[in-house]
Amino acid sequence: VQLVESGGGLVQPGESLRVSCAGTGFTFSNYAMTWVRQAPGKEREFVSSINKPGIAAYADSVKGRFAISQDNAKNTVYLQMNGLKPEDTAMYFCKTDCRGSSFWGQGTQVTVS
Q1: How far is residue 59's CA from residue 45's CA, in Å, rounded to a whole number?
Q2: Of 13, 55, 92, 95, which has the fewest beta carbons less than 10 angstroms from its beta carbon?
Q3: What's the whole-number average pLDDT of the chain?
């Protein structure tokens, strides 16, 4: 199982960004996918998830601004981030729980400044 994030970058407050997570080594459509972020000096925090039926969940801090989606044909999950704020600055990781283990990507940096 391998997860690779991409799409991070430096944006100004109020702008948008879409990060992606491509998965290999497992049947993508069978597992929930989660986005987690970690800001400097802080613990990792849940951002959003999407389960097998495609039901999304969001942290209160991003609700109404972020949208998670997935493309099973491309084995990719996306996080569309709108109205970005400086407090959204963090390393963004995708995660899945598969075959009894948790798998993480290497992360993609999002900086809002």
Answers
A1: 9
A2: 55
A3: 95
Q: pLDDT for 19-42, tens place per residue?
A: 999 999 988 788 999 999 999 999
**DSSP letter at 26?**
S
DSSP 88: G
Burial class (CB in 10 A: 0-12, 13-18, 19+), 32: middle
Residue 2, number of CB atoms within 10 A of its CB: 11
Vertex 18, ends 31 and 32: CA angle to 5°?
A: 10
Residue with tokens 């097998």: 52
Separation CA 111–CA 10 (nearest Å): 5
